Every structure is written in structure tokens, then in C-alpha cells.
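Possible race condition, two jobs.
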Amino acid sequence: MEVLCYGSTPCCQVVQTKWKLVEKNFNSRQSRFPSFVNHGISCSNTVPRIDSMRFHDRSLSVPEESRRLKSFRVYSGTSDGYVIGSEDEIAGIDEHAASKILVPGLPDGSNGEFGAPISSCFWQWKPKLNVHYEKAGCENIGSPNVLFLPGFGVGSFHYEKQLKDLGRDNKVWALDFLGQGMSLAFEDPAPKIKEGERDMDRDSTSSWGFGEEAEPWATKLVYSADLWQDQVRYFIEEWNDCVFGFRQVIREPVYIVGNSLGGYVALYFAARNPHLVKGVTLLNATPFWGFLPNPIKNPRIAKLFPWAGTFPLPSSIRRFTELVWEKISDPASIAQVLNQVYADHSTNVDNVFSRIIETTRHPAAAASFASIMFAPQAEISFAEALSRCRENDVPICLMYGKEDPWVKPIWGVQVKKQVPEAPYYQISPAGHCPHDEVPEVINFLLRGWIRHLESSGSLSLPLLDELDSKKHTNAIARELEYIREGSKKSVMVRYFGSTVSLWDRLISYINSGSKLRNLAAKSQQ
């Protein structure tokens, strides 16, 4: 077995320590939406935790086996990259036979390592529009800035495992897109009645935005991809985060990471602002967004659609939205969706579930959903954004869960074909949200990729450290092991390099499938 570690604790300590069962505390932070009074912040609408959302266990945990120390290949992660272990530790190892890698678990205190503290913050970007974001590791001066963008229907909370872990040695940020998460409007953009009149439905959770006339600040508001990429640009270039008199601001290129919709926006942002991006990581990125034509790109066709996500909502759209929202905001429907997108049903999704429920109860949520669904497409397509990034030498890395029912592997392959130099890591079993389902693996790969770029290529890409340069272009399959809550778990990761033949892909697929079946057989013994 090979052990790779990117933590501050030397890997030899991990190897020599018996794994202990750790009871992890799942009491997450109570999340609340703010109300702004006299420019202050108060909190309300707390949603209690849901403790019954752990799916039936069908994980691929591997029973702990007795292994001799000499069977380990030890690597210790430092800021300078890999440092190979002693000769005694690696004596007798066949480099080509070593295909199993033990990657660090999440910092939960079990081995003396603790996650970085997370700060939850707000800023008023535009009138009546407050952006929520979370940050960690801002004290890591000189370290890379990593910005995470969430998928549709979630927020920065979906990257808690990255903030805590990567925030130990990077400056990490996560945004809530306007109209989602906790970046919802705190005033009604289109009230049903005028101020001063009695509103019998004032407490209705779906009442905001359903009036006949928009407020002046909301007349041009559309929750679109163009708005979100502009939000990201402002956050990087101009936003000043003043904490205890110390002004924290990015104002330098970032590594931007996006899942699903967040991946689409990340790529779109990089294509339009290549000078602000050091690299883009796509986590099962959706390859398209929006149904209506963009008014700038296709003005004539856009005129055929009289409404495109603005406020107020037309009466027909209001009725349609109320019907659809009643269905999709139902807790049972949300649980069903989570059941679809997580391949490993043993994954604890309590916090994700409760935070989504919390968002649906905000009075602005339903109308925001309608605006998002009917917003026009971005000015450039996903394929065009890929081409622009390649023309501007923006590095791209792909990390896709193979069992995603929505963004299936074929989409990752299509991206790889258009950007053949982009490293492509396919993870199995993992679904639509690999960063939350297998955070240990995603964090390991992200750290390695960032260090590879920071070193200008002198440090190898993850999983390629023992291969010579001629093999960097081939497809390889590796089994990655990690410890979670005292249990050992495994996934298969297939890497595709810059020039991968169809035969290489077929052989890699067969080999990884065989190893995955062996893992499943072991777990049933």
C-alpha cells in the first residue's frame, strides 16, 4: 500500500497509529437568515436539524486488514511537495505493483488535527441584495486563494468540508449566488399590496415577488448566469471584508472550483476574466444553463419572449410557480433528489437536507426560483467558454463522480476532448456532488493540483508522482483509501492524461470495474 499525506502531521505517525473508532459530533451550526435593521444584522427563521436523513447503509467499506509496515510507501506532504520516506519504509516495494493509496481523512480531531474555523459573513452588493459567503484560513498570508461556487439549490454550506480542511493551509472562500442559499433578498421585490395596507398573506412563505408591480430596485433584477459571474468578479476585485479593523480582500487571481451550476459559472467567469483566474476545477459541471435566448447574443429571437425572469412575475407564471414550488419544496421531494445524486447512501446528508429546507422556507425563495428558471442564457455557451479558457491558457482540471445520474460520464469525456491537456479524474463510486460525498478524495486531488500549478509543474499531478513523464499521458486507475468515523472506505479513481487513446480508456474502465467488484466482494465477507 502507498500512503500519501498532505497534512501537517507526518505520515509516519499515521502509519504507526492504530485507527480508533471516533464518535463524530454532527451538531452543525444553526443557520439563520439575517434581517437588516439600521444596517445591523439580526437572525431569524431557524430550522431544527433533521437527524433521520442517513440513508440505508450500502457503502463499500473495506474491513481493516493486518499489514506489515514495509508494505507501505510513505509520502509526507509539505509546502514544497512530496518528500519520500526512508529506505527501510519502502524497501522491497514494487513501484508498478503499488496501486493502493491511503489519503488523509478529514480533520476531525481524532489524530490531533482540527479543521480551520469557518466565518459566516454578509455584504450588501446592490440595494436590497445581500450576498452571503463563508471563509476560512484568511490568516494564511501568502497562500493561494481558493473560491468555491455552489450548485443549484444549495449554498456555501455545501463546501463546509473543504473550508475546514483546505482552510488549514489556503485562503478559502465560498459564495452563495444571489437568489439562492442565504443570498436571498431581504425585502419583497414585488409586494402584493402597497405599503401601509393590510396584507393578509404577509406571513406566507411564497408571497414575496408575486405582486403586480416591482419595486424600483428590482425592476431589472434577473437571477441569471450573467448576474452571478458579475457577482463573482466584484467579490474578487473590489469587495473589502473589514474584520476587527483589518481589511481582508482578495484582489488577486484565484483558483476557482465549481460543482454543477457552480462549475458552469466558474468556467463562464474564467472565460470572461482570465486575468483573475489561476485555474478552474470542474466538479460534475452542468454543460448548459438557461432555456431562453440571450438578448445580447440573439436580440431578435429574445424579443419573441416577452418575459425573461424579471420582476414582477406574470400572472400565468405566478400560478405555475406556486404549483411547481409546492411539489419541489416538499421535504419528501428533497430527500428523493438527495437519494438520487449521492451514490453512496451511507453518506450523512443531515446538514445538507436541513439547510435546503431552510432556504425553501424563506418568503423570497419561490419567486427567486421562477426568475432563475426563466432567466436567459449566458452570453457565451459552455463550449465557447472552454475554447476561450484554452486560448488564454487558463488551466482546467476535471473531477467527476462516475455515478452521477444527471451529468453522466459522457459529459466529462466531451470536456476532455475539447481540452485534452486538462487532467481528468473520474471517481467511483461517487455521484453528482463528489466534494460532499468523497471530500477526502476531492481535497487530496485539489491540494495536489494546486501545488502542481504553484510549482509551475515541477511537482507531479496527483497520482502521477511515481510515473515517468512518458506515462503521464496514459490512463491509470488507482484505489484510494481513507478513514471516516473509524471505518476504512475506498473508491477507484481513474486518471486520463493529455493523450488518451480509446484502447487506454477501455482497458482502464475494465480494470477499475474489476477492482471495484473486488472491493464490493471484500465488504460482503
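Job #2 (started ~2 s after job #1):
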Amino acid sequence: MGTNAPPRREPLARGPHEVYFKNLSKQKQKEVMEKNGNNHKLRVCVATCNRADYSKLAPIMFGIKAEPQFFELDVVVLGSHLIDDYGNTYRMIEQDDFDIHTRLHTIVRGEDEAAMVESVGLALVKLPDVLNRLKPDIMIVHGDRFDALALATSAALMNIRILHIEGGEVSGTIDDSIRHAITKLAHYHVCCTRSAEQHLIAMCEDHDRILLAGCPSYDKLLSAKNKDYMSIISMWLGEDVKTRDYIVALQHPVTTDIKHSIKMFELTLDALISFNKRTLVLFPNVDAGSKEMVRVMRKKGIEHHPNFRAVKHVPFDQFIQLVAHAGCMIGNSSCGVREVGAFGTPVINLGTRQTGRETGENVLHVRDADTQDKILHALQLQFGKQYPCSKIYGDGNAVPRILKFLKSIDLKEPLQKKFCFPPVKDNISQDIDHILETQSALAVDLGGTNLRVAIVSMKGEIVKKYTQLNPKTYEDRLALILKMCVEAASEAVNVNCRILGVGISTGGRVNPREGIVLHSTKLIQEWSSVDLRTPISDALHLPVWVDNDGNCAALAERKFGHGKGIENFVTLITGTGIGGGIVHQHELIHGSSFCAAELGHIVVSLDGPECLCGSQGCIEAYASGIALQREAKKLHDDDLLLVEGMSMKEEEIVSAAHLIQAAKLGNTKAESILRTAGTALGLGVVNILHTVNPSLVILSGVLANHYVSAVKEVINRQALSSVKTVDVVVSNLADPALLGAASLVLDYTTRRIY
């Protein structure tokens, strides 16, 4: 890398495409033709949609044209080739001396998502008539554009064999989905890299119908030579521009995040203006968002800026000379990560459009940028460097391989394609042991002290439970969760339980949609921004749900406890901390930022004791186990805790239980503390009643029985008359945290919504 790299491959002069293809070896395969029926020539339809796919298809088209004894070629042109704003690029097909059989205007203008869909629909309407007239034996489709999807869909439904070029590759945006969709429609595949071949095999495509050929455009790139490249540079960038002292910019919209891609384009132009080098800017493709990108160019005056040349199209022969001798290429075109590597030209790949592509060492990725500085820094790093030439995508011999592959196609083989699925275990759904299995969930309760895993049946029975001390570090904790879950899942077979999924109850703020712990309580260290779903799901091959422990307690009540059949109720957990969950119209409320039902942090006094959250006067600062322990320690330090009938060992730690015991034995100060705690909790419940108006309040946790009377008294004294009729009950569930975690799974399997 850098200035010590081998010298750049100099692309010298070349004439028309035919010059190369006259030298293609004529592989006489008469036996294949005889198998297909005497002197039957393979009728090949090549459909091209835009300037990019033509650069890949043209070498194949010339190869087919050079062997008329084997092939008949029909060319169909559609898409942006026929639009003036995109350079009327069908003309370069005519200049290459191809007869265009059909021109189809299929682009619905608008350059937004709807226009892309309408364009696919318009192509689907027009293509059947063309294919009926041509009756090709095989259609060659390239890549991952929406136009190509329409072509493949039409051909597949009309029983025409499809050869797909560049399947199996991985990139960003909707292109990935379209490419893989075309793969499933195609009968034959030509891929460019070993990884792409492996992807196709993994997608259950028949290995015998996959050809690892390399990229057809590399046949031209690696043989391209032009001694007069300076005249091309002068024509497009000006006579004063020297080799390796200019930039080529080509950036397209990202259809899955148009707003961000336009912002990225704006930052790119700002960086290029600041970098102050002559730059050739090509207009973006026809995808949704391109119109907005053109507006950005015009807003910044790029078309009239002395350092910029803005063009709609450059012929491919000339384009490769421009990128071969550029100081740098910048943008998000696949050309940057694929073809440009053949010359070792430095490339800056922007954004996510090419995420997953194999790249050479000449490519520097800028995945995201919130200012122009990051892009400007990348330009300073890359501009003017020279890298070794890369052959990741081809060795210059793709076309001969593809032609040989085409000749080997037996038209008498059944048209229906077959998929090569990996072997799977025999279906045991009719086995009596399987039928009698108990549908169950793996429930995980992540507490401040203990980590518990249980097998819970559909009826709420805890079949088996495992308990370990909760490790202090993230790595140890996650490893222990996985170990305990794997052990429990294995044991489930022995106790005749069929595990449907894993539910996790944890303290802190949780995003249940993604299965991520966003922020944890201070009781659980190193437990923020933790993805729990992915590693556990990957290890057990089961669906995983995650939620806050208070929400899980509410779900447990809804499925197994007092909340069953109740439309609106609130659960309050009284334990080490204070938490809860709110069920409204039978559904759990999470809130816009997953912070709903943080009931322990309802403020009931402006100058109350400090809470662990940093605020003052929260319910949790009065009524939690930690708060009661704090007050018990104060009494003990002043020798005011122990009364007759109580004793403590010297090493024994003072706890909330000692305070409760002292109050029961007549300690007036302990009684006062518990009364204050009960009043604080009661005031919090009154606030809840006035906010969400539930018909039931369920107190859960180890302190619930000590608070229920005080809460009812405060409601009768402080609440509006319209809510005083609310029922306040103590939970009868033995383990709401585990049952709630199980409910995450069991509710989904029975109702299919959560």
C-alpha cells in the first residue's frame, strides 16, 4: 500500500469491443448442438436497463455475436437507457453495432419509492408481448436493479430459462433483496467470486448450474490499453488537468434511507469543494431520491463551479480510462469497489450501499458522516496514492467461460428448477411422546443478587428451577446465562417439556422490540446497551423475548394471577427496589422510550430522602427494601433498633427484615418508619389512580403484605371519590418474575401478538 506499491497497470488504447472478441477461441461443441436438436442455435435474449449493467453485459453480447454458428442474439433495451436526463445511453449500444430488437419505455418518472414500484409494474405489462414475439431459449439478466426483477419475473412466468449474472453477492439497500429474489427465479447463475458461489450454494441453488466465471467487465478492464488517455482526460476535465490530479465522483441514493443518503451527498460535495481539486461528477441513477440529489448539486452550483464537471453519462471505454488515472474515486457506486480495483486507484466508499461487498486494499470505507470533516480527512488520506491492482472480481477470462457454459445447456432438461435443500431431521410430529410433551418456556430472572432460570409450563407450573449468584461482569454474566439456558433446555427433554422460546426479566430500561437492555439499575453492574436476544437465540436456536422486571410482573398477573381477564390494572413490585407494570385495554404499556411504569420514581415529596436514581422524594427512596434497610441501620447505629425479644449476631448485617420485626414487637420508631413508607407508597398509588384509572391495583413482592393496609388507608383519605372503589390486592403468585418472563413466550405462542 502507499507509494511503495507496484506500478499501476497502464490501460492503453483499444478500438471497438470487437477487437478483443475476434481473438476469442472458437470452442466447437457440435455434440451439444446435436443434443439440442440438429443445428439448433441457442436463441439468447439479453435485456439491458442502464449504463451500469450494459458495461457487464456488453462483453457477453460481443462474445455471442462473434459465434453466430452457435447463437442468435436479441437485444431488448428498457429502463433509464431511454431517458434523456440519464444520457440516452441506448445510443452507445447502437454505436457498438448491436441491433436493438425492442425499446421499452418502462420508467415512471418521479424518482421516489412509488415510481420504482410503478416502473416494475409497467415493465411487467409490456414485457410479455416482447417475449412472446422473440421466444428466446434463454434470457440473460444482470444484477440487482428493480428493472431486472421485472425481467426475471416475466421470463420465469413465461417458462423462459434465465441466466443471472452476479448473483450471490452482498451489498446494502434494497438491491440485496432484489438480487436474491432474482436468484430464486433464475435457472442458471454466473458469479464473480468464491464467496458469491458459496452464498448461492447456501441459498439451496444447484451447484451444477452455478458457474464461477469472474466479472465480464474485467475481460475488458484487464486488457484495456490506451496510449492517448490524456485526450480523454482533457475532453472531460480540461486541458490543464494532469493524470492522478483529479477526482471522479459517483454517488447514488440509498433507497432504504433516502434522507440520510441525500445528507451524505451534500456533505460529500462540501468536502470536495473544500478539497479544491478538479472533479468529474456523474449524475446519480434513476432510483428513488435521485431527483433530490440533483437538486443538491444545483443548489451548490456544481454545474457552474470552475473545479467541477457535471455529466449525465460517460461511455464505458472512456470512463475506465478516467478512473484508471484518477487521483481518487469517491461515492457509493459498485464500480468503485469492483472495477476500479483493477487499476489500483484509491477509492472512498461512502455509506451503506456497498456494505458486504468484497473489496481490495484500495478502498477506504466511510460508513457514516455527520460533518464534511470525516470525508475531507478520507480525501486527504487517499488522494494520489497508488495501490496494487486487484483481481478479486475477475481474471480477464469470464466471457469464454460463460459462452462455454451457455453451449452446455441442454434444452431438453426439465424447465422446473430444483433446489438443493440441506438434510433435515425426520419429522416426528406424529410421535406419541412428542404429542404428549408439555408446551413450556425457558424463563430467566436477572436480579441484583441471583440469576435464575426455570422451565415453566403453559399452566404456570415451575417444572424445574436453577439458581446461581449473578456475576459482577458483563462477560461472566452472559456466559452464565447461556450455560444455564443450555443446561435447562437439555433437561427439558428429560422432563418431557417442549421449549417454545426464552423469556428474560431484567432490571432497568429495556427495548423489548430489539431485545436490548438500554440502561440498567445500579444493582446490576455492566448491564447497559446489552443485546440479549442475539447470542441466546443463536445458541439455543429459539426465539427470545426480553422485558423489564416490572413489566414481566404485570404480564404474570395478566396470565396467571389476579389480572387474568381484567382490562385495566396496575402491578406494583415492592422488593429491593420499587417497580411495576401497567396493563391498559389488555395490553402492556411500554411508552415512547420504553420508560413507562417506572412507578418507583413517582415523586411524593419535594424534600424527601435521596433516591438511587439521583432524585429526591421518590417512592423507592421511602418504601423499597434498600430504603428500609437504610433507616434500620440509622436506628441500629443509635441503639434504637433492638427491643425486647430481638437479638442480632455481631457479624449479622442489618436489613429491612429487622426493622419489620422491631415494629411488630412494639418499636415505635420502627412503626413510624413503616407508616411513612406505607404512606409514600399509598400517595404514589393515588397518583397512578388519577393518571390511568385502573380497576385493580396488585401489590407484589416481599413487602406487599406489610403495605396493603396503609395503601388502602391513603386511597380512602386522599383519592378522588370516583377512584376510591379500586380493588387493592396482594399477589398470590409465588414467583412473578419467572412467571412473567415465561408469559413473554407463552402469550406470544397462544395469541401471536406482543
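The longest helix spans residues 668-692.
Logs attached separately.
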